[in-house]
User: What shape does this take?
Amino acid sequence: MIIANWKCNGSKKMIHHWLNQYKNSIIPSDKYVGVAPPYLYTENFLNSSIEHNLGFKLGVQDINSSSGAITGAISLDMVKDMNCQFIILGHSERRIFFKESNLKIEKKLDIIDNNIDTILCVGESADENKNGETQTILREQLSVIDGKDIASSLTIAYEPVWAIGTGNTPTSQEINDIHIFIKDVVQSITNNNIVPKVIYGGSVTESNSEVFFNEEFIDGALIGGASLDGEGFANIVNNFNGYEK
Ligand code: PGA
Assistant: This one.
């Protein structure tokens, strides 16, 4: 699974250019490839992707847990109405800039059914990492699925906050070990003992992606900055094509 998270970037002109670059570089495959542009552009993106037969899925970067008088929010029904196929939840930028607590993220998670894929982001800050608290923080963040029946539509994204947009990453071996930890925790705390897919996010680029994909328990990537370039993103997907994941 390879997901592009555009965050608050893009314009109609950029999408047009991006799609042309992507189309010219992508090698068709049956891998799960998704793009989460800003909400306003999902329809524009969706239409172009169908028109050019690009086969990637469209998603959103967050949802609200209810509809109604909540200025600025979007609901699950709207996301489905727009034919989006996945939702990113609990991204560290939502946790930091929008003060999203684990409780709030849990409420969102609870309303999402299995017809739409969820990518739940977890990850420690630089200080937490320095203080050796990574596993404690991940356990806390994963507690939102404690005691629940989890479907295969749920994927966990391990995104250490200190690696996002910084050019710094853990080593691929360190990420692999954390992914094993995350899979173990999810298996032990969920009611149906599911072992989820775990993808990595944080400064993944065309040039370092294969080092990560080579690791057994890294099931894909969530890509921010490097996904804004259509050719670069297509090449990351092409790199992933060679792996049985
Ligand atoms: P980055 O962002 O690839 O720019 O580090 C990743 C993310 O925030 O999902």
